[in-house]
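**Protein record**
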Amino acid sequence: MQQFPCPFCGLRDEREFHFSGEAGNIRPDTTQPVSDADWRDYLYTHENPKGVSREIWVHTTCQEYFMMERDTVTMAVIGIQQMRRDTA
């Protein structure tokens, strides 16, 4: 079983995490008309690189989203970064 690091809770079992998407996949601006092709590309076109990838994950236990950089071949976690801005 693989373990992933949560920036808030520490090292946890991979079953506590959910993949949310590629980092940098920008949602179309819905204040303007969006073509079917733009929606299709946003929803279904993904890079899926072999090697280092930056991805958005959520730790389902604490419900916090974070960015994880990992190697998609070896599954090694290279780094993590929290996405929330603390208001304190």
Notes: The chain has a mean pLDDT of 92. The CA atoms of residues 51 and 73 lie 6 Å apart. The first strand starts at residue 3 and ends at 6.
